[in-house]
Fold:
Amino acid sequence: MSSEAAIPASASTKPAHPPAPGASQPVHVAHRGGDRFDINVRGHLIRTDQPVSDGGEDTGPTPTELFIASLAACVAFYARRYLDRHGLPTEGLAAAAEFSMGSRPARVARIEVRLTIPDGVPAERREALLAVASHCTVHNSLITTPEISVAFADAADN
Structure:
């Protein structure tokens, strides 16, 4: 990747806090040849590609895999915050996700996220933990769908 041009980022690439409700946060995606794209989020670089079997070079996860990974990571993050807030152990906390695709339109049709909780989390806390983890930001965004627009960038945006 050393010969590839940098992805433009906004002037404040690493804000101290997440954007306030209603504020926008830029994400930049640049084509890197073939099916490869680099994503720049606050100065963090993520490569996406397609599997060799689908014509890519498999240099990174697919955008759909990142989508599923984002949900699983968000569930785990909310669970960790809950455990920490209640003085409960976090060692061994993990989330695993599986998904299946649908067609017409092409989409993720089913997602299953399984949360592995640490030893020492009392049974009486599990229901509340699952409720909190199930209402993470990514999950909420899937349940209450955001407005999405896709348009051409103005020449000034390039």
About this structure: Residues 74 and 136 are 6 Å apart (CA to CA). The mean pLDDT is 90. The two ends are 21 Å apart (CA to CA). Strands lie at 28-31, 37-41, 44-48, 94-102, 107-116.
